Amino acid sequence: MIRPFASSRRAYVRVVRASAWYDLVVTAGFATPWTYALVHGALSSLGDASGLGALPERDVIQTLYANLMGSVVVVWALLRIVRPLPAHGLLDGVARTLFAAWQAYALAHGAPRWLWLFLVVEVAFGIVQLVPWCRARRSGLAAEAAGPAVGQPLGVETP
Asked: In the chain, what are the helix, strand and coil shares in percent, each to the nearest 5?
């Protein structure tokens, strides 16, 4: 059987884990109202000082949505750190595509320009995690990986 992911599985799983560590570091501060207040203040101060724009004043709904996003991303990051699987990279790549789309939308509608830094990272990790799946799909192997062998790399048979 052809194994397009077999030789690079370890490298791919390292990317999945690295993207998870990035997410954990960047979003942990969003997970609680108290840490979000600190992150909000720091991002606003840095954006204001650098001329890249400050965040709007914090309110209870903004804090709620920041906490919801932070909580979900922290849990998702922990899963990928503890049990990184190729399928997690596929799903994370899809999520990053969505995050990048919404960040681009926010930037087009006046969000602080420092958001570009996060957008670039989202796009980079998204590309690195999705390209192997796209290549395998083109070669006809993605259907094999989508079978019952959940989490197995493309082209690898289950015992």
From this structure: 70, 0, 30
Tokens linked to 78: 């922990």
Say if residues 6 and 153 touch (Cβ distance below 8 Å). yes
pTM of the model: 0.81
- Alpha helices, DSSP H only, in the chain? 9-27, 33-50, 60-82, 86-108, 115-138, 142-145
For residues 30 and 67, is the Cβ–Cβ distance under 8 A?
A: yes
Using an 8 Å Cβ cutoff, are 33 and 61 in contact? no
120/117 Cα distance (integer angstroms): 5
pLDDT, tens digit (0-9, with 9 covering 90-100), for 122-138: 999 999 999 999 888 88
